[in-house]
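cron nightly-structures :: item 1 of 1
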Amino acid sequence: MILISNFIHIIASENLKIKDYSKSTGDKEMIEVLNPNKSRPSPTLNTILMVEDTLKNSLDNVVTIAELKKMVPRQVNHNTLMVILNYLEQGNKIVVGLKGITWMHSRNENLRKAVIQGLEL
């Protein structure tokens, strides 16, 4: 324990933004010292595709986040799922509303042509 507290004291003294943790502190504070630059979770491509396929093939029009977590084949961390949903929403593949999430991306060429050639009202 003495070695850990000395190590933490050295790290804390080198980084001016971190408080002095020379005394023994809780585990959470030690983790913050050892990893001061917390980053957002970055999902793998397989996880993104898994969530995308689950939403695309869903029988329900609107799916809540809780339902989506139950529908995916593998368990997905909540924060990772939020990053994926944000990515899909920015890519105009899903719409997130008050009632839940809806898949809206379509690869139907006839639909694309109709939208391009359609009349504006």
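cron nightly-structures :: done
The helical segments are 2-14, 27-34, 45-56, 65-71, 78-90, 109-117.
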